[in-house]
Amino acid sequence: MHSFGYRANALLTFAITILAIMCAMASVSDNFNSLSPTSEVQVWNINWFRKKPDGDDEVSLTLNISANLESLFTWNTKQVFVFLAAEYGTPKNALNQVSLWDGIIPSKEHAKFSFHTTNKYRFIDQGSNLRGKNFNLTLHWHVMPKTGKMFADKIVMSGYRMLEAYR
Amino acid sequence: MDWQGQKLAEHLMQLLLACFAVVAFITGYVLGSFQMMILIYAAGVVLTSLLIVPNWPFFNRHSLNWLDPSEAEKHPKPHPAISGPKKNTTKK
Fold first, then answer.
1. Domain residue spans in chain B?
2. One digit per residue, pLDDT tens: chain A, 167 residues?
3. Region Disordered: start and end of each range (chain B) (predicted)?
4. ipTM field
5. Is the Cβ pair A10, B10 closer than 8 Å?
6. Which helix (H) or strand (E) covers residue A56, if one does?
7. Residue A86 and residue A18 share a domain
8. Are the Cβ atoms of B24 and A22 closer than 8 angstroms?
9. A167 is a domain residue
């Protein structure tokens, strides 16, 4: 501590080490958060359902998505990335997950929502397996913290069935 | 700075930064604001640097007593022996 530069260096090093410890503690404090998200999705309408010229099925849906993800937000949350995926099995693939819609929730105020939308991304099968297919709609989310580890979870909603014939 | 001053500076730095960190974390957690925690801590770092980095007079209260020049002449510095390679068994 005998010179200007020595003291400035010691101070900065110590300050940044303590900052790292504070950020780690902030990240650990996230584990004490009790999560209780809810969501509900209804298939409002199946707009059209066809077989593409290359042989794959494609369907366009209008969905009513409503969810309350407020309990996911803590003081250490930067944003929550949420997406809705249709999940089903086919003879070719054990599990297909097709993302239909996604969004970014920047703060707790925006975390409770309910709206109608057509699927943001095309629902195309690898093959022609969608007629009469039972599928789940799963709401996935990724909670992105300000410091620390990102964690992801989901809610599975089942009981949806595709039309028996093309329209 | 003298020795006591350096010790004081080091202890002061550790104490101040630790206190500001604790206050900042608790305030941020209670208010639910990460930004508040960072701001309070940054203010603490600036305050601490103003207090210990410059060479304030209160760090120099126990100044070092250098040997008086007249006293130094009475104890001449020993001359190093100039002879060939030699093993030094005693360390200076």
1. 3-55
2. 788 899 999 999 999 999 999 999 999 998 888 889 999 999 999 999 999 999 999 999 999 999 999 999 999 999 999 999 999 999 999 999 999 999 999 999 999 999 999 999 999 999 888 889 999 999 999 999 999 989 999 999 998 999 888 88
3. 70-92
4. 0.78
5. yes
6. none
7. no
8. yes
9. no
Nearest one of A82, A120, A85 to A99, comparing CA atoms: A85
Torsion angle of C-alpha atoms B23, A29, B39, B6, degrees rounded to 10: 50
- Picking from A18, A19, A75, the nearest residue to B33 by CB comes out as A75
Give the Cα separation of A59 and A17 in Å (integer). Answer: 54
- A residues 23-82 closer than 8 Å to B (CB): 25-26, 29, 74-76
- In this structure, the answer to whether residues A71 and A136 fall within a common structural domain is yes
Which residue segment(s) compose the domain that A147 sits in? Answer: 34-161
Distance from CA of A102 to the nearest CA of B (A): 27
What's the number of domains chain A is made of?
2
pLDDT tens for each residue of B39-91: 999 999 999 999 998 888 888 888 777 878 777 777 777 777 776 666 666 55
Residue of B84, B85, B67 lying closest to B76 (CA atoms): B67
Interface of A with B in 120-149 (CB under 8 A): 146
Provide the CATH number for the domain around residue A82: 2.60.40
Chain B residues touching A21 at Cβ < 8 A: 21
Task: Please indicate, yes or no, whether residues A18 and A96 belong to a single structural domain of this protein.
Answer: no
